[in-house]
Specification:
This protein has 85 residues and is mainly alpha-helical. The longest helix is centred in the middle third of the chain and has 26 residues.
Length: 85
Amino acid sequence: MRRVITTGSTAALLTSTAASACPTCRPDVVAGILNEHFWGRLSLTVLPFLVLLLIVGALVLATREVPSAVPVKSRSDAPGPRRRR
């Protein structure tokens, strides 16, 4: 019985749309979302993701290994054929 309820609920959620529930209210809802405060609300919605991205980027850069510089003197001490001048 529980499986039938779960399957029926899932099918109902996947096949229904919010727009078909209230066709007369849709213009009012769209006008309420797309008003003069839209860009401010959108920026406040995206802001946490940008802050998280900056923190992760700073952590990646801080933990990145920097290759050590090879001194000039040790290069000449390396084994191998030597050139004569």
